[in-house]
Amino acid sequence: MSERKKVSLPTLFKKVAEGKPITWLTCYDYPTAYLQDQAGIDMILVGDSLGMTMLGYESTLPVTMEDMIRHSQAVRRGAPNVFLVGDMPYMSYQPSVESAIRNAGRFMAEASCDAIKLEGGAEMADRIYGIVSAGIPAIGHLGLTPQSVSALGGFRVQGKGAKQAKKILDDAKALEQAGAFAILLEMVPDRLCQLITERASNCIILSLGSGPHAHGQLLIYHDMFGLYPRFKPRMAKVFGEAGKVILDGLKQYVQEVSDKSFPQTENWFTMPDEEYEELMQMLDK
Ligand code: KIV
User: What's this model's pTM, rounded to 2 decimal places?
Assistant: First the structure.
């Protein structure tokens, strides 16, 4: 397939100005990144969800900066042309503005990311301001914020009530004023997402399970292809049952090795007769 032009911040704002939705997916490894780049995905998020989808943790909280950098580097190698976003893991930015700038800088310097994302509203505005002031594009994340899932009382829709919705609207404004170039709204009602999108002046609004009115959509790759065995969120459309295809292939492999129908001659390598004879003579000595 032909080489794509690198997706940059101006590319994203141009799409928004032209009313073209932005496509965004999570990704954590080299071969998947290659496929996503070839498919023409605009943005990739190396999410700390990799703690659950790739490392098998029960939540995102144990994920470290080292995990994030390692996976972001692999994704960048596979997808040189996408707009790559590194997700700040738990406690990489909450302790102080300085920790936030330092760790955001690591994503840029060590993994060639184009931007970072962090969770939280007005209380994180100073982190966003500090990061943006250091020359690093930043994305805010509101609504269901998995790093605070315990405080939020579980994985549930946020902003259904008027008071909570107003708080999310105010948080979005605070993040935009702090310099966030984009905000992800995860699992908020569609009408709230629409209000925030209409009120955003120089900020791209992206939706994960928050309806069609945002400037773009994000999905978790593993949910799209039936690759996460523990649960499937309602908002995730399954675009292909890759997990089932792989499981069927694995069962067939077990069967064919067991009944000796694998391997066949095309699956191994032969040695010329004369070389084999010579080897046998050497062994006779
Ligand atoms: O880590 C992640 O993949 C995320 C999404 C849930 C938005 O932050």
Answer: 0.95
In angstroms, the CA 137 to CA 233 distance is 29
Contact 246, 222 (CB under 8 A): no
Residues in Cβ contact with 273 at an 8 Å cutoff, skipping those fewer than 6 apart: none
Which structure tokens are listed for 135?
């020359």
**Residue of 186, 198, 241, 278 marked active site:** 186
Mutate to test the pocket of ligand 1, among 60, 72, 118 (most ligand atoms within 8 A of CB): 60
User: For residue 220, which atom of ligand 1 is closest to its CA?
Assistant: 3
Does the beta carbon of 47 sit less than 6 angstroms from any atom of ligand 1?
yes
Does the annotation mark 110 as catalytic?
Answer: no
Among 53, 156, 186, 219, name the best residue to mutate to test ligand 1's pocket (greatest count of ligand atoms within 8 A of Cβ): 186
Residue 232: per-residue pLDDT: 82
Residue-wise pLDDT tens digits, 45-97: 999 999 999 999 999 999 999 999 999 999 999 999 999 999 999 999 999 99
**152 vs 44: which has the higher pLDDT:** 44
Taking 60 as the threshold, does the pLDDT of residue 106 lie above it?
Answer: yes
- Dig out the tokens for 197 from the structure: 């999108």
The span from the CA of 163 to the CA of 145, in Å, is 18
Distance CA 139, CA 205 (A): 10
Write the residue with the smallest CA distance to atom 5 of ligand 1.
Answer: 47
Contact 43, 7 (CB under 8 A): yes
Residue 145 Cα to ligand 1 middle (Å) = 8
